[in-house]
Write a structure and sequence with these properties.
Blueprint: E1 2-3, H1 13-21, E2 26-30, H2 41-61, E3 66-71, H3 83-93, E4 99-106, H4 113-129, E5 133-136, H5 155-169, E6 176-178, H6 183-190, E7 195-199, H7 207-217, E8 222-225, H8 237-247, H9 252-267
Parallel strand pairs: 1-2, 2-3, 3-4, 4-5, 5-6, 6-7, 7-8
Helix pairs in contact: 5-6, 7-8
The structure holds zinc ion (2 copies).
The site of one zinc ion (ZN) has 5 residues, from loops.
Length: 271
């Protein structure tokens, strides 16, 4: 199994070990995009370096043998005056071994210009370097932005804007994962032609919801992942989805697409 959205820094070692024992041996770690205490580019660089070194080494001890990194300029925490330098930094990392794409990058609102400026820059970077991009879309269930107007957080509106930006950029939809889908946004996103990320965790999807999407749309464009992975008893999200799919009598070949081959092909992983 591959988990394409694995925030390794917040996933305890015990959970990583359970995942390794479940033969989830490959993960893609998206750089964090909204750590409020990011205040300098040195901290972003440190974040990339830790994932590529100590986090990778720890995970290996637990049976997660392949750790890949996607890089981003955080949507939150750094001012736009750092954006050019941040993109320069990303340019130094994108050719490195195990750096397989851009992300996560996306938007939660259509009312905060900062988000859109950063997102457009990340899409342009991915296109220029011809690498995949993991696109964050508003979480299916609850908003972390307490205090904002509900209209600021309209998932359909935000998804429409994200797709518009992607289409206008000219990036190949086959290089894009629109992540954290739910029923509402999935219907809209399907027509764009990208890969669709199904994130199984507390504020996103359950295994049975993922089974129902599979039944409706088939396995060819879905990529299952965990995001933070808090789903009740901890991060066993991708293996749990496999069990749910098996229980629903999905053929093995279909399951393998959703938890392995689609991601392997998109990111061209050397595994
Ligand atoms: Zn996200
Ligand atoms: Zn995430």
């Amino acid at each position: 199994m591959i988990d394409t959205h694995f925030h390794i820094g917040v996933i305890p070692h015990e959970w990583q070990h359970i995942l390794g024992l479940c033969e989830l041996d490959t993960v893609i770690v998206p750089s964090d995009q909204m750590i409020p205490d990011y205040s300098t580019l040195d901290m972003v660089k440190d974040h990339y370096d830790r994932i590529l070194t100590e986090k990778t080494e720890n995970a290996h001890d637990f049976g997660i043998f392949n750790v890949f990194l996607a890089i981003t300029f955080p949507m939150w925490g750094l001012p736009l005056t750092s954006l050019d330098k941040g993109i320069e930094l990303m340019g130094q990392y994108i050719g490195k071994p195990r750096v397989v794409g851009v992300g996560e990058a996306g938007m939660d609102t259509v009312t905060v210009e900062h988000e859109e400026v950063v997102f457009k820059a990340m899409v342009a970077f991915a296109k220029e370097h011809n690498v995949p991009i993991i696109v964050h879309t508003p979480p299916p269930r609850h908003s972390p932005y307490l205090g904002r107007e509900k209209s600021d957080y309209d998932k359909r509106k935000v998804m429409e804007q994200i797709i518009k930006i992607l289409v206008n950029s000219g990036i190949d939809p086959k290089k894009v994962i629109l992540d954290h889908m739910n029923k509402e946004t999935l219907e809209m996103a399907w027509g764009y032609g990208s890969w669709l990320g199904l994130s199984c965790c507390l504020d996103k999807l359950s295994g049975p919801e993922i089974v129902s999407f599979y039944r409706e749309y088939g396995p060819d464009r879905f990529i299952v992942n965990s995001e933070w992975g808090f789903s009740g008893g901890g991060n066993r999200s991708v293996p749990k989805v496999v069990v749910d799919l098996k229980a629903a009598s999905a053929p093995l070949e279909d399951i393998q697409k959703m938890v392995f081959y689609n991601a392997k092909n998109l990111f061209n992983l050397p595994i």
